[in-house]
Amino acid sequence: MKRITSLFVIFCSPFLFLNLSLAQWEPEVRLTNNTHASETSFNNSWGLAATGELVHALWFDDRDGNYEIYYKRSTNQGKSWGTDTRLTNNTDESRYPSVSADGDILHLVWRDARDGNPEIYYKRSTDAGLTWGADKRLTADSGASLPPSMVISGSTVHVVWFDDRNGNYEIWYKSSPDNGSTWGADVQLTNNSFFSMQPTITAFGNDVHVAWHDNRDGNSGSEIYYKRSTDGGLTWEADKRLTSSTGESRYACLQVTPLVLHLVWNDQHTDAWKVYYKRSTDRGVSWSRDTLINSIYGLSEFPNMVVSNEIVHLVWFDSRNSDWEIYSKRSFDQGITWTDDTRLSTAPGTSWFPTIAASGYTVHAMWSDERDGNFEIYYTRDSTGNFVGLNTNTGEIPGKFSLHQNYPNPFNPVTKIMFDLPKPGNVTLKIYDVLGREAATLLDKNLTPGNYSVDWNASSYPSGVYFYTLNSGEYADSKKMILIK
After folding, report:
1. Residue 19 in domain
2. Domain contains 239
3. What is the mean pLDDT of residues 77-87?
4. Mean pLDDT for the stretch of residues 462-480
5. In total, how many domains does the chain have?
């Protein structure tokens, strides 16, 4: 395990202020235990979703004689997990789930061969995974529809995949404007005489972004292509080539924030596969140069990414230690600089196809791992990995405990909570909703005396009344705040 600490020192007052950005991945937890292979999806899909205290994990395994989609969830930010739930049940293979969460609504798409050829299927849960609706077939053509990628933006669900219904693999898209209740027609996004494969999708507001790899340019391998819609998927701009490598570029993953569009992919700029990154700060119109994410000896493949609290989190697997292992790194400045690599899987054997999610201040990672003799699903978390700042005034020791009113209040979506600590000790700062359910843990650590402030980014939480509670052994206090979106 590796601890990453960034110190920012500001000499702007008689006191010394420190901003601590901590990262600490916990030991891996085995999520599955059966005699058959349990596998995670490709990097363009997300097998993990997190919102508030809930974490949702999806994979596929063949414990029942053929591959089916399985699900389990945690209600306490990954500290403990419920039982496996089988979500599909048919006579042919169901593979490659991709999940998105919006509060208590979960959306799931996957590739399914029950109809004699692979098709894209969808289902949803409206009660945070407790129950699930019926399977809904999204594609119906004579070709093979292959692994989907999905994103939600407001009440719109966007899905992309690739299929060969016209004799050649092309990228296809469809959407639902009403949280999966009804769906529009299939839309063909590419049209060339070469293969277009493995699309990834992200969205913010009415901007929908899609990237994929494509060998239309006649080089020895594929290049990464991109296109966007600025009207919620109704119309699409022309394809844009984003890479120009002498080797092959493939397996893209996109993520977007209000300010920056992020792209990672695999590339053979040299003889070995490596992970590369680039970004756009103008909604995909122009892009930065290619940036090599890691230069360590060995192959690095299938990057998966999530952005939360403006922090970019990246996972992939590579062979620097002979076995395939899972690695992670992050950027606190929207992709300009990156932390050192952190190894997440610690046992010999193959660990691959990681997926990542974040909510509140916790980052979650999951992958398929063969340390137990067959592939099982493993999970780890970093409860401080999405932590945007603990600020402390170390030049003055307060005379008494105090919890201050948050500012601003009401807020959207970030607010600051300040407290005074006259004695050293373990301090917890937690958020509760109006029903008294724990929504987030902002702080749980030993602190020295001082004046502190913590920023809470509630971008993944619904509007409403919340309470924050400070507890330091002999002292406890709680105050009300209002989130308005």
Report:
1. no
2. yes
3. 96
4. 93
5. 2
Domain boundaries, position 120: 28-382
User: 194 and 99 in one domain?
Assistant: yes
For residue 368, what pLDDT is reported?
A: 97
Residue 385 confidence (pLDDT) above 80: no
End residue of a domain, out of 333, 363, 382:
382
What pLDDT was estimated at residue 439?
A: 82
* Residue 165 neighbours by CB distance under 10 Å: 18
Domain final residue pick, 332, 347, 382: 382
Verdict on whether the full-model pTM lies above 0.85: no
